[in-house]
Automatic annotation (TrEMBL):
Active site: H126 (proton acceptor)
Pfam families the record matches: Ldh_1_C, Ldh_1_N
Domain Lactate/malate dehydrogenase N-terminal: 5-91
A GO MF term: malate dehydrogenase activity
Keywords in alphabetical order: NAD, Oxidoreductase
Superkingdom of origin: Eukaryota
UniProt protein name: Malate dehydrogenase
Amino acid sequence: MNMFQQVVATNDNVEACKDVNIAIMIAGHSRKDGLDTKDLMSKNVSIYKDVASVLEQHAAADCKVLVVTNPANTNALILKDFAPSIPEKNITCLTRLDHNIALSLIAEKIKVPVSDVKNIIIWGNHYLHRYPDINHATVTIKNEEKPVKERIGDDHWLKTEFITNVQQRGSALNRSQKAKNSALSCASAACDHIHDWVYGTPKGKWVSMGVYSDGSYGIPKDIIHSFLVKCEKGKWSIVQEKKCIQCLELIYAMVGLTIDALTREKMVLAAKDLQEEISMAKSCLD
Ligand SMILES: NC(=O)c1ccc[n+]([C@@H]2O[C@H](COP(=O)([O-])OP(=O)(O)OC[C@H]3O[C@@H](n4cnc5c(N)ncnc54)[C@H](O)[C@@H]3O)[C@@H](O)[C@H]2O)c1
């Protein structure tokens, strides 16, 4: 059944937010407007402060929010601060574009379709220090699932060119396509984010989403940080770090992921970068 009914184009925030179940927030300025970081931030966080209360008052009670506008993690946090009655679980930001870029670079390197690669993680902020972690990623070739690291076998490339490419690909797209910038791949990533959030992620597969930190992996609490999540029945949950659990009376099992020293170092850097960005954003609102 085709659920699409109509498009309403409006510059009235109340009309735009009325009864919406899914809000994809793309309003704002981008670097192509020639703004420096502080000016861009100041303009965009003010937009998010203003729109937060409109969304809180007029959107559907269960509205799922995806913030795309940069600085995406921080705008999402500002939106939450100024819309306190929207549940934390309902406010997210887009890091799926970085996730998709990382998948495609790996697929290109191994020469397989992107759909054969899974479980890359983007940690941190949708900005300079976002960190693509391939330690748990796998590629399936002829029905055989193997670690990406093993298939690539070029540790130097993974630790250098690959990381830099993921971190800089968005701005490279902006430079190369000028006015069109990364809009199409960004739109496609936003669809992926909402699709998986609403319909769920397949068993054994996770995706990257900017979500409220509960302190998992030692990431500071109460910031919006990119984690690996799985989604089920319209809800996301963070895939947890390796720990020992009691599964039967006297039987213990190790579940979750292990984090290596390099990833831990990059995660700390990404979280620090994000906390500095949040302080700068809050100073713009004072
Ligand atoms: N998170 C990501 O992965 C990702 C990827 C690409 C772009 N982005 C960001 O998304 C944002 C949008 O990018 P774009 O290329 O579509 O920019 P754009 O300039 O083409 O579109 C932004 C739109 O927002 C509108 N706008 C400006 N102020 C507004 C306000 N106060 N209320 C309502 N609308 C307003 C503008 O008129 C414009 O139409 C930028 O901040 C960009 O950096 C994020």
